[in-house]
Amino acid sequence: MRQLVYPENDEDRISRQLIEAALSGDEQAVLEALEHELVDVNYRGTVSLRVKYTDSIQREEVADEVKFDYQEFRTDVTPLFAAAHLGHIGITKKLLTVGADVNQKLFRGFATTAASREGHHQVLDLLLRAGAQQEAVEDALLEACLYGHVKAAELLIGSEMTRPDVLAQALVHASSRGFVDVVATLIKSGVDIDSWHRVLLRSAKPMLYANIDCTPLIAAIVGRQTAVVDYLLQAGAKTGCKASLGAWSWDSGSGEELRVGAGLGEPYNEAWCAVEYWESSGHILTSLLKHLSPDSVHNGRTLICHAILCRNMPAMQLILDAGADAEFLMQARDGQERPLHYAARSGWLPAVKVLIDHVCSVDAITESKDSALMICAKHKYWDCFEELLAAGADLGIQNSSGQSAITIAEGNGYGSGVQKIIWNAIVKGSKVRSTDPEVFSALHVAAKAGDLQVLQKLLEQGDIDVNVQDKYGYTAAMLAVGEGHLEAFKLLLYAGADIGMKSKKGETAVALARNGTLERLEWILLDAILANVLKSDEFQVLHFAARRGHLEVLTQLVKRGCAVNGLDEDGYTPLMLSAREGHADAVKLLLLAGADTSLTNGRGETALSLAQKHSASKAAENIILDYLAKKFVLAGGQVSKHTRQGKGKPHMKNLSMLKSGVLCWGRSRRRNVICREAALGPSEKLQRNRRRRGDADKPGVFRIVTNKGREVHFEASSQSNAELWVRGINLLSAEVRVPNGSDRGPGAGA
């Protein structure tokens, strides 16, 4: 037979025809091509191939979505690869029988890879039976796990030609993509459920695109694959494995958190991973917390702290609901602290609110005795400060440096701002608390500022002590008076402020009044007494009314039984003050109420001497003199009585005057007379008669004239007493006149 000689390129042409026949699925054309002696059954040719591809699309807080699609590629193929890719069983069998190489590797893998990728299980089975070797089987298995083909995975695992590390890689891939059936198949086939492998993990939040050494469980958590997580946990996957997935690192020296980027932080366990790579339903973290403690610690921090650091409120709420200890002591740069301190230092308001809602102690302190309120003030997180304040955080705590939250805020230049925060909290109805008024007292600050709205709100709370003293011994009432805020003082007074309390310097509220406010202050106190808010003995109200000459008030106070002879801090009685100011009517009222004219102050002054010295008007002086004179005459006393118009020897008599107007110095009717008038000094006749005796000008002589015109002379012990006798006799005589002009009253004689 003549041997045909073909051109050099006929082999390529015929082999390409074989590839085209395999791609078209034309089994007859394949057979015809195979009849050529020059055909190469393993020929590589470049074609345009429509290839299935997959991609994992990341979304925030939900499971990664695995997307499948087809795309045209220019790639190299063999006839067997083309037949396996398109799933042509008959062509595959024919090619295998004529020696097609099942282990020939192309750019897009082996023929087993193509069959596995496209899900052609029967073709894959043929290829495995045809002697697919380990590399071809392993490549196909990884492809089956990427595309979620369970049947292909079963066939490939059943070949028992895959190494453990490839099986581990396949399991991690399937777990990250959420192919729970593939995962189950691998595990049931004996793949180690806790195997580790380095795979590419991706996430949109936090942003991650890195090759990470991880377990199937961790890969599923990062991919938010809830079904896979549940299956792995039920199948006995071990928890507590640590992977480097975190975006945060901790400085071992300072304890500061450092954001280093996802995948660059210290390794942590699955629960911490689930907090940072959060799945919106919270199902993954809930499942993990059935196997891991919610109080697990990482670098001195708890899971709650990690939720705060990641700003993950749903995770934080879930962890607390799972029984995490909101008071767990954790290690920080300044020693031990609690989650609330950590939340305050981070300045994250939602975390502060949640911890408060879980009834954690808002006054717990760190080792340096800083409270959460102080930490907020240090870092200027005023919204958190306000929230803690409304929750009852104690403003009276001091740290080891002697600082309080208020002094820290003032040191940061925000003293007035903090005061506004406190005022707003009070106005909204919050009870601003301070266990140590020497450190801070809202009542004192409001009183000193004269803020009536805040004061009113504080007093409406009902359980506030209005008489509490600060470190200087001042009450809120004292501060209000000292600053001239008298309306604020009035509020406090009517709320029960004790005006008798003294500061450490011995000052009272009244003593602190400025010159321009003293009168108004006294009127407020006076109104309080009249309204039965203040007891009269708590404030020398009678002295005030007497000094002002307020008759209506004096009348009420006297009726209430106020002590008319009480001394003020300067030793003055109310009568002295009225006399000094010249208030004649007030003097008269006080005298009628029993005021004692004989009392003296520290300078030896009496009401009379003060009236004589200071009063521009003589009215007050005259009233006192009238009172003294009448009292003197009614009381009576010893005088010398002259007889026979001075010719006889004077002798002692007890002279007095009755309220009826009768002047008495004996029992006979001639010694009980009604006077027409009394006058100082002797008559001319007595003076003439006494001159002969040498005592005509002796002081203390006075005379009376009865209604019948009889003249009687007396001599008092002093000139001033003589003046009182004359004044008193004339006053009483004027008050009691006998209607018919007779000088005989009852029992009176000429």
Description:
The chain has 750 residues and is an alpha+beta fold. Among the domains are: 10-162, Ankyrin repeat-containing domain (Serine Threonine Protein Phosphatase 5, Tetratricopeptide repeat); 540-625, Ankyrin repeat-containing domain (Serine Threonine Protein Phosphatase 5, Tetratricopeptide repeat, Alpha Horseshoe), CATH 1.25.40.20; 636-735, Pleckstrin-homology domain (PH domain)/Phosphotyrosine-binding domain (PTB) (PH-domain like). Helices cover 44% and strands 13% of the residues. The strands form 6 sheets. Strands 11-12-13-14-15-16 form a 6-stranded antiparallel β-barrel. A two-stranded antiparallel ribbon has the order 1-2. The protein has a two-stranded antiparallel ribbon with strand order 3-4. Strand 7 and strand 8 form a beta hairpin. 44% of the residues are buried. Residues 1-8 and 738-750 have low confidence and may be disordered. ANK repeats lie at residues 75-107, 438-471, 472-504, 537-569, 570-602. Pfam families: Ank, Ank_2.
Give me the secondary-structure category. Answer: alpha+beta
Helix content: 40-55%
Q: Kindly report the average pLDDT value.
A: 88
Q: What is the CATH topology descriptor of the domain at 10-162?
A: Serine Threonine Protein Phosphatase 5, Tetratricopeptide repeat
Mass-distribution shape: rod-shaped
Keywords: ANK repeat, Repeat
Protein name: PH domain-containing protein
